[in-house]
Structure formats: C-alpha cells, structure tokens
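INFO batch 0412 | record 1 of 1 | parsing
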Amino acid sequence: MDHRRLAHRSTLDLDDVIYGVHAVEESLAAGEQLRRIHVGDERKRDPALRRLLEQARALGILVRFEERGFFTQFPYKAHQSVVAVGSPFPYITLDEAIGLRRGRGAALYVVLDHITDPHNAGAIIRSAECAGVDAVILPERRAAGVNATVRKAAAGATAHTPVARVANVADALRRLKKAGIWVAGAALGEAAQDFTQADLARDLAIVIGAEGYGLSQVVEKECDYLVRIPVLGRVASLNASVAAGVLLFEALRQREVARASAP
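INFO prediction complete | emitting tokens
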C-alpha cells in the first residue's frame, strides 16, 4: 500500500499523526497543538473517552466522528479508533538541549547513534522520559525521526521529552563534551567497563548504538568511556531499547546513592 496516496485520500499527514487513546491524551495534557481528532462512531459514548473528548472541546480542537471504513484504511492497526492530527514535531536544537536542566542535580542525556527501528526509538524515548532525562538527541539522516510509530511506541512520552535533531552525531558529542558533559557509549568487548562499576552519576550523555551494529567507529572514538551490560545467555546482546533502560536506571540509582551520601 502506498502510504502517501493513503494520506492524500484520508486527509492525514502520516508524519504528523498521533494514534491510540493514551498517546492522544498525553498530547492534550502536554499542550501540543492538535488540528483535529478522529474518533470512531462506536466510541461516541465510550466512558473511556470522556476525559479525552472533554479536553478536546475545552481546547477548541475539532473532533470528527468517523465510520469504521475510515480506520480500516489507516496503516497503523493499534489506533483504538482514535487518531489525532498534530503539527510537525517540535524538535529543539542541540544548543537548546545543552541548556536544559529538567531536574535537579547532574545532567542526563540519551544520544541515539542511527537507531532505525521506530519501535526501538519510541521505547527509548519512553524510558528516557521515565528517567527524567534532559533531552534525547538523534541524527537527521539514516535514523528514525519522531513519527506516528515512534509516538505510539513512546506511549505519550514524546509529548514531554525534548528531542534534538543533529546533522552529525560525532560532532554533537564533541559539543556536549565542550559543555562539560561526559560521554559514555554502550558497547561490548573487553574495552568496556561493567555498567555497575562505571561512573554514571556525573553530568552524562549515554550513547546507544544502532540495532545489530552497535556504535559506529567515529562515534565510539568520541566517547570518554564505554560501558557494557553482561549477557549470560546465548544471544550476543540486548535489544537497544532494553539496554538504554538498564543504563538509564543504573544512572538514576547511582545518583540517588550519591545524594544520600552527600554531607
């Protein structure tokens, strides 16, 4: 199926779509600019949608009730008969990302080194939001941007997590280091430290490599140090999004320990 033709027929720009009840609710809660929301006729009086519809009306967002045929043409199946059309995703610049401090204490960033699977990218953004990161940084090319699938996989986290897009990941790491941010790359091999022994409590950017390839050589060279998660089974490595979650919450654990032991 040609998604561009489908978008023309259904008046949907698929890059600007947010689908699923929870993802749309989070977008409304975060104040994202939604142009309209399409809801299935069968859900007009669904109690589960009461809050969503009330929020939309209060914000003056157009709600269109659609017949089942509208959603059968939609290429993403987990839509729950709720599809919102928003504005293009509001990426921030790297300079803006460096200037952010969402929480107290040490800075924390996640950098994606050409993650192409939108489900992985969305899951990483979800973990990053739960860990309270300052921003996620990803490349403009050969990588998943924030599209409908990423927003769905992120379960609403893209509405709350600043995301910067950069032309070159290695250059972005150099700029982070100039700003006083340490860079730790997730890797395998003897050169990498066990992740529980590495210092993840400082101002830090954690770099996650591409699925199946890991960190590119040029990106790995820019890392201040490498960290590994021990794998005891027969599969060589963890899924990229799982690895990101493990490292992020180890960073949080170390920071809590540091705060508790501070005079």
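INFO post-check: The CA atoms of residues 2 and 30 lie 32 Å apart.
INFO record closed
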